[in-house]
Amino acid sequence: MKRKSMLSKVPEVTLYFWIIKILCTTVGETASDFLNVSLGLGLNGTSVVMGFLLLAALVFQVKAQKYIPGIYWLTVVLISIFGTLVTDNFTDKMGIPLEASTIVFSVALALTFAVWFAYEKTLSIHSIFTLRRELFYWSAILFTFALGTASGDLMAESLGLGYLVTGIIVCAVVVAAIIAWHLGLDPVLSFWIAYIMTRPLGASLGDWLSQAHANGGLGLGATNTSALFISAILLTVLFLSVTKRDLIAKTLSNDLPGKQPKGVFLQTAVVIGVLVIAAGLGYQWRHAKLQIAAPGTAAAAIMPLGDLSEFRIIAENSLTMVKSGDIPGARNRIKDLEKSWDFSEPGLRPKNPQIWTVVDKSIDRVLTQLRSHAPDSAACCLALGGFIAQCRGLCK
Question: If you average pLDDT over every residue of the chain, what do you get?
Fold first, then answer.
């Protein structure tokens, strides 16, 4: 039985689509840092605020009877930020390793696609004109953003590849998908591969632009980077709203079930297999290389994590600011500690995983106190003092 026809709820896949998509993913990374750290909302506060905003945007998007650029892309921006926060909560609040988060979100995305296809017999975004398909679509989008954040951070930070190298690797995968599409790869499969991979690409671009020079970035800061990309998104969406260059004008009817191109399931299995094997081998190679680089000398027993003076100095600066009543300054300075520690993780953690975990938790306590809704000076001083003493004790 045919369902009632209506206009498509998503844009046509054009160059503008991919430009805004990458801009949105970059904003998802930098805006999350801006709200969490620069505005001092904290991870919990930012998650709650963005969750409510995303829910409101989804209500407007679902109620719309056709594709409206402003509503659609606002939803994408918000889901990008929220997807980043989901991964950050897994990592920072729950202590789940990025390896586990990457696997969890990969499985969740695969299950979403499987259930979506089981019900609708198509994963084409040109068929998003029923409520159920739209809900499947946005669920998949959320998991692509969470997965992209986890995999991007895993590559750039945990495996120490850096933001630029990570971006180049992801870009190479996207280019390979485009070439494969021209050579006969199923267009729906090609689209979702590119869509998933542009998330870590945008996240790496955002981190590369916003992070300090010492952490491998260009030092623009989360505020400037977010403002730059949000402005670009607004201008592009305004252009599309006026010109309607990305509008799927024709009325769509329900896709015929069971009309999949010959060999698409085999293509999907082969592509997934290649990506999983390549990712697994790459992870093992990089992890082994980091293990070899870890010191095994007698000095490691005296300084198990090496020289921690860089982190201690940042904490001492922050402590001085707290004691002088400059909580906002201390909160801003402590960002350097968080980023430097995360960036140094690939080199420090293999030296002594147990001690690294202890110090990591000590830094988390410092961040929690300084980023609380109403920071208590005494509690901040206690957390900072404990971390400083810990650094000195490990470097004797």
Answer: 80
Angle between helices 15-33 and 131-153 (to 10 degrees): 60
Band the pLDDT of 56: cuts 50, 70, 90.
very high
Instruction: Determine, yes or no, domain membership for 157.
Output: yes
User: Domain range for residue 368?
Assistant: 299-394
Number of structural domains (the chain) is 2
Residues 248 and 350 occupy one common structural domain: no
Final residue before a domain boundary, out of 231, 257, 288: 288
Judged against a pLDDT cut of 70, whether residue 162 lies above it is answered with: yes
DSSP-based three-state secondary structure for 6? strand
Examine the fold and report which residue of 267, 288, 309 is the final residue of a domain before the chain moves on: 288
Residue pointed to by tokens 């009325």: 251
CB atoms within 10 A of CB 15: 9
Give, in order, the Cα–Cα distances in Å from 108 to each of 82, 119, 139, 205, 241.
16, 17, 10, 25, 34
Tokens matching residue 300: 């490691």
> What are the tokens at 380?
């901040």
